[in-house]
Amino acid sequence: MKKSPRRVRCVKRWLAATLCAGALVAQQPTVFRTDVNLVRIVTTVKTQAGEIVGTLGKDEFEVYDNGVKQQVAVFEHQTEQALSVVLMVDTSGSTSKELKYEADSASRFFRALLGEGNLQDTAALYTFNWEVREQQPFTRDLKALDARLKLLHGEAGTAMYDAVYLGAQRLEPRQGRKVIVVVTDGGDTVSKVNVHKALEAVQLADAAIYAIVVMPITNDAGRNIGGEHALEFMTQGTGGRTFLPTVGAELDKAFNAIITELRTQYLLGYYPQNLPSSKDRFHKLEVRVKGPDLRVSARNGYYGGVESGRGASPEDRVTVSPDRQQTKKR
Questions:
Q1: Range of the domain at 70
Q2: What is the pLDDT of residues 126-143, one digit of tens each?
Q3: Lowest CB count within 10 Å: 112, 175, 186, 266, which one?
Q4: Is residue 15 part of a domain?
């Protein structure tokens, strides 16, 4: 059957449109998601004298995953990345005398943190005694943070590991750099999770812990040495740092040192390659930097493969400040 000229013209136009569309598709590059296995490492470099070094280049770093050298695919100076900081203040009964000084120093810390740097930086305030309480969610509102700090008071109990664990959960979905700052006199008495589970949660959240152990007692007798060692264990495992100040100028100095480190960091990222098979989900990380007089602070590992089970959850002991008129979180 002979086709009509009109039908032939329609078919030709359809074929031309199809070929044109095909050509356009062919010209578009195929896009694959390449960040699903990216391992990020936030790193601080110092001299032997403790001075921070912020001028190194990508070629001066080496990264090892379970002993295997990796190719650094992402390199950034961290002043460009937003910060999410959770400040955890110990309000157990033993801290009552120091709380006013700690609140004053924390206020100055927030002002320095949010008054400069990235405009996307935010901070949240939590307290912990026998429970963990959300005083102020992530914000840049200094007045709101100051108002919460002025209401701090001491009660019995110390759920420090629960506080770290829950701070990590709040940080996990956030973008950019993530930090937990714990202000305490050391020790834990009522947590549902242990120090290992708390550290695991922080590593899963890709966050770092900075611990400020306020020391009204400077001699070993009467100090909670075990609590200090636990905090040191968590800070070393996440690339953070532990401070042992007394209240006053030394406490301010510790907060200022944290801000200086956060403003002078590097981000290293790589896609794991050529790793030997292992049933252990935890990968050991090592970051090296060229130069015999330089030392590196970075997290010591990450959890790969199957998502970690979080075990016993302390969620039923987290509340928000009652005068904020929010319901209890479960």
A1: 33-330
A2: 999 999 999 999 999 999
A3: 175
A4: no
Query: Whole-prediction pTM value?
Result: 0.82
Contact 207, 179 (CB under 8 A): yes
Percentage of residues in the chain having pLDDT higher than 70: 78
Query: Position 86: which residue type?
Result: V
Closest CA to 275 of 27, 67, 50, 79: 67
For residue 300, give the nearest of 315, 283, 312 by alpha carbon: 283
| 42 belongs to a structural domain | yes
| Alpha-carbon torsion angle 74, 52, 67, 60, nearest 10 | 60
CATH assignment at residue 284 = 3.40.50.410
Residue 73 within any structural domain of the chain? yes
Specify the residue for token string 């209240």: 247
**81 vs 176: CA distance, rounded Å:** 6
Residue 26: inside a domain: no
Both tokens assigned to 266: 């590097």
CB 207 within 8 A of CB 200: no
Separation of alpha carbons 151 and 281, rounded Å: 43
Closest CA to 239 of 281, 278, 213, 268: 268
Q: What is the DSSP letter of 190?
A: S
Question: How does residue 278 score in pLDDT terms, banded at 50, 70 and 90?
Answer: confident
Band (174; pLDDT cuts 50, 70, 90): very high
Domain count, the chain: 1
3-state helix, strand, coil in the chain (%, to 5): 35, 25, 40
